[in-house]
Design a protein that fits this description.
Pfam families: Peripla_BP_4
CATH class of the largest domain: Alpha Beta
Protein name: Putative multiple sugar transport system substrate-binding protein
Shape: elongated
Low-confidence stretches: 1-39
InterPro entries: Bact_Solute-Bind_Prot2, Peripla_BP_I, SBP_2_dom
Largest sheet: 6 strands, parallel
CATH topology of the largest domain: Rossmann fold
GO molecular function: carbohydrate binding
Subcellular location: Cell envelope
Structural class: alpha/beta
């Protein structure tokens, strides 16, 4: 995996992604690349999974911009959630002899042949937010602290129910329960789904054990709750089935753990169509989320979705670009996590960024003031 790059080296250019004090930490603005610019003829293949999610469009654009500032030309490809299309796109990048490849996989287990070919061609591969599994030919992984995402979602669910305050401290007026909740997980071909799930379940487990929270459907395993490709329609269909099978007797559902804003919107549509809400103030169950998509932030402003998790993908793109620069300049980026991400063959060196919970009162400070979204984008329900 530790290939030695034989490309021309820009004089004095070195990337060091600074070591954090502990695994999973983000050391703010300390990590940085060199002040020199990489050779303008260098080309980087950027393989994104889909345009159906606002998040991936933003990531693709951010990567192109960050790579451009470092003097790289980016070949950005979207695969429309089609694994075979993504494999063909990466094959073409290797054939074109790009200088590096950054890939956010549709199916993290499907790229073995492509990674082997990249290794043979001396092309470094950086996994972008989604780990590539079952391979010894992956160089580096840039992502967020995905376990922390699950913890944040679970704490947001508890806060929405009044069991803890927004800081996660148990409240004096907490309801005694039992409170019915249902659980959703992401796509099982995305390694992140397991980290989100584990972080959430570990946080909620004490409330299940003491009977405060009850999963009325009994579906408490990730395989039972997963939504393929993180599909909004798939989430709505599963929520429809849960309501028909387990809540037709008039039982109330208090909250739904959702790992992603698109899934959240599908869940919310199902709940509203079943006559709940339409807002939290009207009795709509608490629904969590992730990615701060404009459509879901709008729902938060309307009092519909309770929370989301903000992962500043501009910073993710920045550090991915710096890792590319490091490899092209004959160096290796330095991880801040060397233990968490075992891909089935090896533990992949990773650089993890922090995440932030966003509630209604945080939208201005975290999303608007930072420039991540504009109010116009939120009002339109799209950052496109």
């Amino acid at each position: 995996m530790r290939r030695r790059i034989t490309m021309a080296v820009a004089t004095g250019a070195v990337l060091v992604l600074g070591l954090a004090a502990c695994s999973g930490g983000d050391d703010g603005d300390a990590p940085g690349g060199s002040e020199t610019t990489a050779a303008p003829t260098a080309t980087v293949g950027v393989a994104m999974p889909t345009k159906t999610s606002e998040r991936w469009i933003r990531d693709g654009d951010a990567l192109v911009a960050e790579l451009g500032e470092l003097g790289f030309e980016a070949d950005l490809q979207f695969a429309d959630d089609d694994v075979e299309v993504q494999l063909e796109q990466i094959d073409a990048m290797i054939e074109a002899e790009v200088d590096a490849i950054v890939v956010a996989a549709i199916d993290g287990t499907s790229l073995g042949e492509q990674l082997e070919a990249a290794e043979a061609a001396g092309i470094p591969v950086i996994a972008y937010d989604r780990l590539l599994r079952d391979t010894g030919d992956l160089d580096f992984y840039v992502t967020f602290d995905n376990y922390a995402v699950g913890v944040a979602q679970a704490k947001a669910l508890l806060a929405g129910l009044g069991l803890v305050d927004w800081a996660g401290v148990p409240t004096d007026t907490a309801p005694t329960g039992p409170l019915n909740v249902e659980l959703f997980a992401g796509s099982l071909d995305d390694n992140n789904a397991y980290f989100f799930w584990q972080g959430a379940i570990d946080t909620l487990e004490p409330y299940f054990e003491d009977g405060t929270l009850v999963v009325k459907s009994g579906q408490t395993e990730i395989e039972q709750t997963a939504i393929l490709r993180w599909s909004e329609d798939g989430a709505k269909a599963r929520m429809d089935e849960l309501l028909a099978s387990h809540y037709a007797d008039g039982s109330e559902i208090a909250a739904v753990l959702s790992p992603y804003d698109g899934i959240s919107r599908g869940i919310i549509t199902s709940l509203q169509e079943a006559g709940m809400g339409p807002t939290l103030a009207d009795g709509l169950p608490v629904v969590t989320g992730q990615d701060a998509e404009a459509a879901s932030v709008l729902l938060m402003q309307e009092g519909v979705q309770s929370s989301t998790v903000f992962k500043d993908t501009r910073r993710l793109a920045h550090f991915a670009a710096l890792a590319v620069e490091s490899y092209v300049n004959g160096e290796e980026p330095e991880p801040n996590d060397t233990t968490s991400y075992d891909n089935g063959v090896e533990v992949v060196p990773a650089y993890l960024l922090d995440v932030e919970s966003v509630y209604l009162e945080d939208i201005t400070t975290q999303l608007l003031d930072s420039g991540y979204l504009t109010q116009e984008q939120i009002d339109a329900g799209s950052a496109g």
